[in-house]
Amino acid sequence: QVQLVESGGGLVRAGGSLRLSCAASGRAFLFYGMGWFRRAPGKEREFVASIASSESGGYTDYANSVKGRFIISRDNAKNTVYLRMNSLKPEDTAVYYCAAGPGSAGRNTPYDYWGQGTQVTVSS
Fold first, then answer.
1. pLDDT tens for residues 69-86?
2. How far apart are CA 41 and CA 107, in angstroms?
3. Using an 8 Å Cβ cutoff, are 1 and 100 in contact?
4. Contact, 9 vs 16, CB < 8 A?
5. How many angstroms separate the CA atoms of 118 and 124, rounded?
6. 12-58: pLDDT as tens digits
7. How far apart are the first and last CA of the chain?
8. Fewer C-beta within 10 Å: the chain N or C terminus?
9. Burial class of residue 20, CB neighbours in 10 A (0-12, 13-18, 19+)
10. Is residue 105 scored above 90 in pLDDT?
11. How far apart are CA 104 and CA 5, in angstroms?
């Protein structure tokens, strides 16, 4: 069982930056692939970024809409995954969720565990 708690959301102006954190419980964090997803008002949840476990190569993947602006990273010693969001746009406004799944997790992986989400609001 893994529990995930997101933090770092807030209100920021367009062009600004935020860093989201997702703290995971349990000692097996380093074996999990981690993902970030978001759900904007009136829209379905969408993939944002993922990072595989070190054992699976640690590769990253990004949605086209955030590629070049967002960076996903992980600190296995702290059981935490981060999402650095730069050059934020109003269309990035959403609730952001982190998720844990198999080590090779990517955009289409059926993630097993989800956090409660953190709100990000980007004003124009």
1. 999 999 999 999 999 999
2. 21
3. no
4. no
5. 20
6. 999 999 999 999 997 789 999 999 999 999 999 999 999 999 889 99
7. 40
8. N
9. buried
10. no
11. 21
